[in-house]
């Protein structure tokens, strides 16, 4: 637990499920006042939900103003809302490619630029951007997603530099995490039989040096650390929460 997060106002985009939900819960446990901005259904009473599409500027402006007017500060922003779909650049439609970039990259920019003026009037402001291990090692047929996750690293560094020393900005890069997004990916590969989905996720887990996929709460721990005063000299960096996936070269060596 990080004592300094108690009472802080924390915005989490895409906090209705998956990683965002675990992040929102973690900050709520820390005693923060948490607002989820997402388009999904919300079922957790420990934090507040506002229906908001991060690609819609008017929605975002109204939501963030309402938060600031009600709470008087915005201390932490976690850009997390993201989508993924698959196909080579020839197979994926132009609309789909644009949609992924719009949510995953423009959405982070849009939320940040509108939140930052409020954050600069608040104590110890900090942004945490959820990127991915796919900013480093990548899977096939995911060019829009991979591009967005690489770009988030540059975006994170830019905010860190442009707003230092007044505001910190860092990224978290998770590998495979047990969320609806990953279950959907498994389903696309093996169909909707629950046992087949479980087997697929175990197989993905076995490819991580830690021999399992991660839990959303393990990403939330990293986010809480980066937002806390314990990380007061850390800005512009990315913290990998990947069970070692990004460090292993697929080359054998003698014992
Ligand atoms: P998820 O699909 O389980 O949840 C996504 C959330 O984003 C939902 O709350 C949804 O309502 C929200 N959302 C989607 N489009 C939105 C929009 N236009 N406006 C507002 N909210 C919107 O996804 P998951 O797995 O929890 O992923 C969260 C983030 O973590 C994403 O940025 C994803 O790329 C990233 N990530 C996920 C990994 C995984 O293995 N699950 C691995 C690495 C990164």
Task: Report what the structure shows.
By secondary structure, the chain is α/β, with parallel strands linked by helices. It folds into 2 domains: about 5-175 and about 215-245, NAD(P)-binding Rossmann-like Domain (Rossmann fold); about 180-215, no CATH class. About 45% of the residues lie in helices and about 15% in strands. It is built from 7 helices and 7 strands. A 7-stranded parallel β-sheet has the order 3-2-1-4-5-6-7, sandwiched between helices. Strand 5, helix 4 (about 145-165) and strand 6 (about 170-175) form a beta-alpha-beta unit. The radius of gyration is 18 Å and the shape is globular. The protein binds 1,4-dihydronicotinamide adenine dinucleotide.
**Helix count, DSSP H or I runs of 4 or more residues:** 7
pLDDT average, as an integer? 97
Q: Say which CATH homologous superfamily of the largest domain is assigned.
A: NAD(P)-binding Rossmann-like Domain
Do you know the CATH topology of the largest domain?
Rossmann fold
Q: Can you list the strand order of the major beta sheet?
A: 3-2-1-4-5-6-7
User: How many structural units, i.e. domains?
Assistant: 2
Bound small molecules, deduplicated = 1,4-dihydronicotinamide adenine dinucleotide
Which geometry do the CA atoms define?
A: globular
